[in-house]
Amino acid sequence: MSVSERRFGVLPTGEPVRIFHLENKSGAYIEVTEFGALLVKVCVPDKDGKLTDVVLGYDDLESYEVNGCFFGATIGRSGNRIGGAKFSVYGKEVVLAQNENDNNLHSGPDGFEKKLWKVAETSQEKNYIVFNRISRMERMDIRESLMYP
């Protein structure tokens, strides 16, 4: 079992982005990146023992930056569509960004899949990585965490 990392690319802001490779004893592995906490690859053996990637995705960071299909995405703050890109809470209307006709899909054009996540913890022994980020909201902070076993 192992957890390793390599450079995946550089954002337009100049920030480098890493990708992490987690492999089990049998050689099956996943790859996840700190950009969007995206699940990039899941490679498992087929019936003949040949490792095969079983998820849809891209081979480079630039493609994920314009990922219109949400391949491998960590969705947040909301998932699915919010009709009309607005809703009410206790009688107060909340208006969201539109990114699918007049709807808000998967939190809009600036969702969690477009954010850098912090690597909070990795374990070679237990073969995992934990990403987290703080999601700023009016009057409160919400801590988001995601663990890939």
Describe the structure in brief:
By secondary structure, this protein is mainly β.
Give the overall shape, derived from the CA principal axes: elongated
Number of helices: 1
Largest β-sheet summary:
5 strands, antiparallel
Unreliable runs: none
Q: What is the percent of helical residues?
A: under 10%
State mean pLDDT (0 to 100 scale). Answer: 87
Q: Please state the structural category.
A: mainly beta
Residue share in β-strands: over 45%
List how many beta strands DSSP finds.
Answer: 12
Gap from first CA to last CA = 11 Å
Q: Provide the gyration radius in Å.
A: 17 Å
Strand order of the largest sheet: 1-2-3-4-5
Q: What's the SSE pattern?
A: EEEEEHEEEEEEE
Please give a structural write-up:
The protein is mainly beta and 149 residues long. The protein has one helix and twelve strands, in the order βββββαβββββββ. It has one helix at residues 61-65; strands at 2-10, 16-23, 29-33, 38-45, 51-53, 81-82, 86-89, 92-95, 104-105, 118-123, 128-137, 140-148. The chain has a five-stranded antiparallel beta sheet with strand order 1-2-3-4-5, with no helix packed on it. Strands 10-11-12 form a three-stranded antiparallel beta sheet, with no helix packed on it. The chain starts with a strand and ends with a strand.
Based on the model shown, name its key terms:
single chain, 149 residues, mainly beta, 5-stranded antiparallel beta sheet, 3-stranded antiparallel beta sheet, 1 helix, 12 strands, 47% strand, elongated
Q: How do the strands and helices of this protein lay out in sequence?
A:
Elements: E1 2-10, E2 16-23, E3 29-33, E4 38-45, E5 51-53, H1 61-65, E6 81-82, E7 86-89, E8 92-95, E9 104-105, E10 118-123, E11 128-137, E12 140-148
